[in-house]
Specification:
It is built from 27 helices and 14 strands. With 848 residues, it is an alpha+beta fold. The strands form three sheets. Strands 6, 8, 9, 10, 12 and 14 form a six-stranded mixed β-sheet that branches. A four-stranded antiparallel β-sheet has the order 2-1-3-4, covered by helices on one side. Helix 1 packs antiparallel against helix 2. The longest helix has 47 residues. The radius of gyration is 58 Å and the shape is flat.
């Protein structure tokens, strides 16, 4: 028997272990890889979620500060805590940054340095989260030692709203008011961070500022886009000129570099617009011309703020105004024919603001250029005659002895009475100076008759010049009085000046009024009864009036040609104009006399045009013409317009309704201050004159309902009806049949009709009358009831009324005619309407 064959069984357990040992690392790698990739996925999702939570925590897209709570969009720790909730991540870093939108993100703040006042609506909060993931699988970690992940969340700051509060005005919690979204976009699809018009000012920004978010990058059209205005310049994106200074925002920031939020950028009290458009000055520089005076001050002074030296006299405006007190607009401030620079330089020791520095009645320039005298010296040559006196006497103001007679010009005039232009005044052959030495008189041929002065002097004789030792030279006494009988303290002429002083002053001791001007020498010398004046000059101020006339007659100042300083010389006021030379405003109307003459008004009549307003009020306050009682020629005097009708006296049509004020007041009774007196939205002119071809459209400007039909005039015009169509009253023709065979009276019904209802009671009177119109039947004779005058009343709304006329039969005594007969109904007076058909034929038809 055969043996069964033995089968070898494999060693499966060992093999399995071997195979398991081979596959185990792979399995471990797969498992750890799955864990690693799961870790990545979880970390990725958690990072995103944590970042969202951090941004939501900030709630910046529509945030309002909760009382007692920190400002959440500035709560760095809170945002960090929310963003750190991530598993399997190492070395996570969070960066919280705020980006300013006003310069498109170029300016940023870290969370720990920002403050609420640095942020405005539209700025961006950015949170950046980055983390590192370490893999477990050696193979993976070998390939990717560290996996870094980073996410960024951005939210727009809108500080004025709160998202977390069930706000019914923002149902989609996007930071935009629902009504605003719908008005601009038609639905709630927009979000605060959207920017449809691409101007850099997102929807939240545009809503907050009232600008156009859809199709206008520059809402107000001023050349700056909305974002620039919102973030860069803080201007109003809906107003071309935010500060209302006369320059657009674009001009301010781009063209001129001024502050669009400040009316006066440089603080010189001139608006930026006025500086650019009116004065041409630099709105960024309070002193455009750099002369030391602010532009506004220069405008007030009348100088040019663009020129450092307005009058081109080599002195800057500042030097003139501040240092020297001269005028910056006049090269010669005092008008003395010497320029300001010459005077302030001290060239002639003169004053630049005083035309006559030495008060010698000669202008400084005349002294320098014409007479070559010193303008700072009253008496240049020191001869005791002022330069002005020398000019009048034609002596040389620069020569102490003009005629070279060894006597000074002053001594000749004041002491000896000799002629300073003639060396031998009395023509006796002896020089005036020699005569004084000899003791003879230079004005008498023979001082002591019968001896001749020439004999005495030529013979070597000499006399005692003061033989009576009274301190008065004999020659002065004899030439003045003819004898030596008066002493130095005597006052023979009674003028209040003794002989000693008369000789000193050069006045005539024997004549109380040396210059014959009507004032005694004492009055002039000592200022008695008026100002002092020169007792040797008839007209001290040279104005044509003697000193006596000025003081005693007119009360003016004999030292001033224009006593009241009104620009008119005293004689001109007195002799030509009849004004008061002592009052610059003779008629007290508020206008200087010379100004009145320039304007053509009467300086002695406070109200030249007799309109009830004085001339000064018209010129200085009202701007009206003082020469016209009715400045605007509207038929109302200026006084009436200002104080009664309260209209504008310089505008003939105050209310611009095309009717002049006078016509409104005097002719039409309308209000000249209201274009639509009766308030029916039709101007007064339109009511009266707008429809010349259709008078029924011409309405009453004093009544809203001209034709009293219950509809306002403007309503009727707008709806095609006639506003001036009064109620027409008509009588209608009628007939009645009478049967003559029975001789009975019958009633004729007569109808009166209004062509439209009235809102008021309407009355009409009617009567009967004989009459047969052409082609009518026979005259009715008296076969009808006679009605002399009866009133019919139509109450409001009633348009038809009737009355009865009795037609008599034969037996009633009425006519016996056989044919048909006619008579009239006549309308003759009415109230609240017009007679449209005032006569109708009534016919009596006879049944034979």
């Amino acid at each position: 028997m055969a043996q069964p064959q033995r089968v070898r069984r494999p060693k499966t357990a060992g093999q399995a272990l071997v195979e398991f040992g081979l596959i185990l690392p792979v399995l471990l790698l797969v498992i750890t890889g799955i864990i690693d990739f799961g870790q990545v996925a979880v970390t990725y999702v958690q990072s995103l979620s944590a970042l969202r939570n951090a941004a939501r925590f900030a709630e910046v897209a529509g945030f309002a500060t909760i009382p007692g709570q920190p400002t959440r969009y500035l709560d760095c720790e809170g945002m960090i805590d929310a963003a750190n909730d991530i598993l399997f991540a190492d070395n996570q870093t969070l960066t919280i940054t705020y980006h300013k939108a006003n310069d498109y993100g170029n300016t940023s703040f870290d969370c720990d340095t920002v403050s609420a006042d640095l942020l405005v609506n539209g700025d961006i909060l950015e949170i950046v989260s980055s983390a590192r993931i370490q893999f477990i699988t050696p193979f993976v970690s070998g390939l990717v030692p560290d996996l870094n992940i980073a996410f960024t969340a951005r939210r727009t700051i809108i500080k004025s709203l709160e998202l977390g509060s069930d706000d019914i005005t923002d149902t989609d919690y996007d930071g935009l008011d629902d009504a605003w979204e719908i008005s601009w976009f038609g639905d709630l699809s927009a979000i605060a961070t959207g920017d449809p018009d691409g101007d850099g000012c997102n929807n939240g920004c545009e809503e907050a500022r009232g600008t156009n978010p859809i199709d206008l990058q520059d809402t107000d059209g001023d050349g700056l886009d909305d974002a620039e205005e919102a973030y860069l310049y803080n201007t109003d994106g809906t107003d071309v000129d935010t500060d209302d200074d006369g320059l657009t925002d674009y001009e301010e920031v781009i063209t001129y570099g001024t502050n669009p939020l400040v009316v006066d950028t440089d603080g010189d009290t001139l608006s930026d617009g006025d500086e650019v458009n009116v004065y041409g000055t630099d709105p960024n520089n309070p002193d455009t011309d750099g002369d030391g005076i602010f532009d506004a001050e220069e405008v007030g002074l009348g100088s040019d703020p663009n020129l450092a030296d307005t009058d081109s006299d080599t002195l800057s405006d500042y030097q003139e105004v501040v240092v020297h007190g001269t005028s910056p607009i006049l090269a010669d401030t005092d008008g003395d024919i010497l320029s300001d620079p010459v005077e302030v330089a001290g060239t002639y020791n003169t004053s630049a603001i005083d035309a006559d520095t030495d008060n010698d009645v000669l202008l400084d320039g005349e002294e320098v250029n014409t007479y070559f005298t010193r303008p700072d010296a009253y008496d240049t040559d020191g001869d005791n005659l002022s330069d002005y006196e020398e000019v009048l006497r034609v002596t040389n103001p620069n020569d102490i002895d003009t005629d070279d007679d060894n006597l000074t010009d002053g001594d000749e005039v004041n002491l000896y009475g000799s002629d300073p232009l003639n060396p031998d005044t009395d023509g006796d052959g002896v020089n005036d100076g020699d005569e004084i030495v000899c003791g003879t008189s230079p004005v008498l041929v023979s001082t002591f008759p019968p001896a001749l002065d020439s004999e005495m002097c030529n013979g070597g004789g000499s006399i005692d010049p003061d033989s009576d030792d009274d301190g008065l030279p004999d020659i002065w006494e004899i030439s003045t009085f003819g004898h030596l009988g008066f002493g130095p303290l005597d006052d023979p002429d009674g003028d209040g000046i003794n002989n000693q002083d008369e000789r000193l002053f050069g006045t005539n001791g024997n004549n109380p009024d040396t210059d014959g001007d009507g004032r005694t020498d004492g009055e002039e010398q000592y200022g008695i009864g008026g100002p002092t004046s020169n007792p040797k000059i008839y007209d001290t101020d040279g104005d044509g009036l003697s000193d006596g006339q000025e003081v005693n007659v007119y009360g003016t100042n004999p030292n001033l040609q224009d006593s009241d300083g009104d620009g008119l010389l005293d004689p001109a006021e007195i002799l030509i104009h009849g004004t008061n030379p002592n009052d610059p405003d003779s008629d007290d109307d508020g206008l200087n006399d010379s100004v009145e003459l320039t304007l053509g008004t009467l300086p002695m009549d406070a109200d030249t045009d007799d309109d009830g307003l004085n001339d000064g009020e018209e010129v200085n306050l009202r701007g009206t013409n003082p020469l016209m009682a009715d400045t605007d020629s509207d038929g109302l005097s200026d006084f009436v317009e200002i104080y009664e009708t309260l209209t504008v006296p310089t505008d003939s049509d105050t209310d611009d309704d095309q009717l002049n004020d006078g016509s409104e007041v005097n002719l039409y009774g309308t209000d000249p201050n209201k274009a639509d007196t009766d308030g029916d939205t039709l101007t007064d002119w339109a009511e009266m004159f707008a429809f010349p071809l259709n008078p029924l459209k011409t309405t009453d400007p004093l009544v809203q309902d001209t034709d009293l039909d219950g509809k306002r005039d403007d309503f009727e015009l707008n709806n095609g009806t006639l506003p001036n169509n009064p109620i027409g009253i008509s009588v209608l023709a009628a007939s009645v049949t009478q049967d003559r065979r029975h001789n009975k009276s019958v009633s004729m019904i007569v109808t009166l009709k209004l062509d439209k209802p009235s809102v008021e009671t309407t009355r009409i009177r009617y009567r009967t009358a004989d009459g047969t119109p052409p082609g009518a039947a026979t005259l009715a004779d008296n076969d009808y009831e006679q009605i002399v005058g009866t009133e019919m009343v139509f109450l409001p709304g009633v348009t038809t009324r009737t009355f009865v006329v009795t037609i008599g039969g034969q037996s009633n005594g009425f006519g016996g005619d056989i044919g048909n007969e006619t008579f009239f109904i006549m309308l003759n007076t009415n109230d609240n309407g017009y007679i449209k058909v005032g006569q109708a034929t009534m016919t009596i038809l006879y049944n034979r």
